[in-house]
Write a structure and sequence with these properties.
Length: about 160
């Protein structure tokens, strides 16, 4: 089985989760960052996992474009969708629902909310200032959930 893990990341959180998926899954796995990935053809894979993160309330444009540009092909594949965000509960679910098209969410075999992280070392001055003001968080923090990643893998491989 050939699996593509395609993702977009701004400060590395989604990449860390994608790498954890790569380590956990078995088979022929290819990991691709949409930034600089060139043309990616999901038709070459049996399973396609798509991940992104929330910045300023939205998922990365590259993830949106990938889903839109390949929607017909993705409907013929086993699909998993994951999102990294700092919100929890209903707010996180709302961000997930707004991030991915309903048709793709309905088709996905696995869906995951993996938590998020603020990595102040990878943010510019303005980003740090905004995060501090909005969240009240003053230093780097990670809320990535290994349990959520494990549940996602279990759903995907069931």
């Amino acid at each position: 089985m050939k699996t593509l893990i395609i993702y977009a990341t701004k400060h590395g959180c989604t990449e860390a989760c994608a790498r954890k998926l790569e380590e956990t899954l078995t088979g022929d796995i290819e990991l691709r960052n949409l930034k600089g990935a060139g043309e990616v053809q999901p038709g070459d894979y049996d399973t396609v996992l798509i991940g992104g993160s929330i910045h300023a309330g939205r998922i990365q444009k590259r993830v949106q474009n990938f889903c839109r540009n390949h929607k017909d092909t993705l409907r013929t594949k086993t699909v998993g969708l994951f999102l990294c965000c700092m919100e929890e509960g209903e707010k996180a679910q709302k961000q997930f629902d707004e991030a991915y098209p309903e048709e793709l969410r309905a088709h996905a075999k696995a869906q995951g909310l993996f938590g998020g992280a603020f990595d102040f070392e990878r943010m510019n001055f303005l980003e740090r200032k905004i995060i501090k003001k909005i969240s009240g968080i003053e230093a780097s923090v990670s809320k990535i959930s290994e349990d959520a990643i494990d549940r996602f893998v279990t759903e995907l491989t069931a």
